Amino acid sequence: MTELEDIKNYARIDADIADDDALLESLIEAAKRYIETNTGKEYQEDDPVMLLCLRILVVHWYTNRSAVSKGSIQKYPHSLSDILKHIELSDEYPAKEATSS
Questions:
Q1: Stated pTM of the model
Q2: How many CA within 13 A on the CB side of residue 47?
Q3: Residue 53 near residue 80, CB atoms below 8 Å
């Protein structure tokens, strides 16, 4: 299963609906960078915790495309914040290597 298929399955988007595929793919890449930037850890494709974090983050961004809803800023689900903190603090995940510019 591809990442896109996995995300569509998690978000309960029919596989044959391709209207937002490009958007979802860009959100997947942005989420990987977000996870690395906010945790300081290298994104690992095969890690179930990072995969869950990616899924929650992409679906959150996909369903909440506006920064403001009903007069208040959209916040991340509590579970996402906890998962990001877990990844950041855990020694089980390798630190992201600095890239030279």
A1: 0.83
A2: 16
A3: yes
Q: Of 89, 96, 83, 13, which is closest to residue 48 (Cα–Cα)?
A: 83
Local structure of 100: helix, strand or coil:
coil
Task: Phi first, then psi: give them for residue 31, nearest 5 degrees.
Answer: -65, -40
What confidence tens digit (pLDDT) does each residue in 18-66 have? 999 999 999 999 999 999 999 999 999 999 999 999 999 999 999 888 7
- Please list the residues that pair with 69 across neighbouring strands: 72
What DSSP assignment string belongs to 4-56?
HHHHHHHTT--TT--TTHHHHHHHHHHHHHHHHHHH-B---TT-HHHHHHHHH
Give per-residue pLDDT as tens, 63-81.
888 766 555 555 666 788 8
